[in-house]
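User: Could you go from structure to sequence for me? I need the amino acid at each position, not a summary. Structure tokens:
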């Protein structure tokens, strides 16, 4: 037989996603990168960014992809692990 402590139950409620406000932004840390990304033209130049470790690459990519999703355009990236640089560009 299982006993549940009814006094400590969690109240769960479903709400619309539009009600949930997100205040976490990466724009302060990656602001120069995001400003450079915004200036890219499809088929034009790429942005070259040096990195220290794989974690920073993942953070950069996540910030850029989220930013571009809000702006409704696509940016791709390629990593040069030999020279520890990552490139962001807009495809045609």
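Assistant: Here is the amino acid at each position, in order:
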């Amino acid at each position: 037989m299982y006993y549940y402590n009814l006094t400590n139950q969690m109240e769960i409620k479903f709400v619309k996603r539009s009600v949930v406000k997100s205040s976490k932004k990466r724009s302060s840390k990656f602001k120069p990168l995001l400003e450079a990304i915004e200036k890219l033209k499809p088929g034009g130049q790429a942005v070259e960014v040096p990195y220290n470790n794989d974690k920073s690459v993942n953070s950069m990519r996540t910030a850029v992809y989220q930013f571009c999703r809000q702006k409704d355009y696509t940016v791709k990236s390629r990593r040069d692990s030999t020279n520890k640089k990552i490139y962001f560009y807009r495809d045609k």
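One structural detail worth keeping in mind: Strands lie at 47-50, 76-80, 85-89.
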